[in-house]
Automatic annotation (TrEMBL):
SMART domains: P4Hc. PROSITE patterns: FE2OG_OXY. It comes from the Eukaryota. GO terms for molecular function: dioxygenase activity; iron ion binding; L-ascorbic acid binding; oxidoreductase activity, acting on paired donors, with incorporation or reduction of molecular oxygen. Keywords: Dioxygenase, Iron, Metal-binding, Oxidoreductase. It holds the Pfam family 2OG-FeII_Oxy_3. Its cofactor is L-ascorbate. GO terms for cellular component: membrane. This is OGFD3 protein. Residues 140-242 form the Fe2OG dioxygenase domain.
Amino acid sequence: DGVTEVLAHRSDSLRDKFIEIPCSEDYDRHRRFEGCTPRRCGRGVTDAVITREEAERIRRIAERGLSLGGSDGGASILDLHSGALSLGKHFVNLYRYFGDKIQDVFTEEDFALYRDVRQRIQQRIAQVFGISSSAMYLTKPTFFSRMNSTGAKTTHDEYWHPHVDKVTYGSFDYTSLLYLSDYTKDFGGGRFVFMDADSNKTVEPRAGRVSFFTSGSENLHRVEKVEWGTRFAITISFTCDPEHGIGDPAL
């Protein structure tokens, strides 16, 4: 599996940790946007953007939404933008499926918190990579994930395969993950792994921790299988291409 180096332990409280790495050529295969498309690539971790209390409030939004459905396998997703919700072996559109009842599940405050958190993460990424926050657009898919040790029932449940976000989703330029639960306390396994040629670099999830990185092949990554407990996170993705931008979710 290669030597494993821990970039961020769960017990650490990191203001800002950033590791610069050379950019891959993935960005040259797409239209470049000056002042946004990565020229400086790398990966960062911070525990200073979102508080643990905010992470708990956001996790409760995820729990309420996912309680309406859930995958038969170990990985369930909830996308507040498109309405996609795992249900059994398929996905349903939460907004169409539940209609007005959705007002009983989510509040305006939930969506305001979600928006605020997204903006703060966007600003931090822009600051670290030396770009303008206004040149970045939220892109899809941006979603909550809930993972447990149940065996996979469909390919959607197989979250542990190594992948490159820019290759999987052409629009991604910057990817971020906000963790909503704690490694070794709420779940075992489930660490985030950057797979470098010489070694693996892992991030141990901690509620409120944000891990962010440029989306090209310089950041090939995977998530370890969850061995016990439940792991909650939210993936928030950004593009430099306004045509691939999406709005914040609204009730």
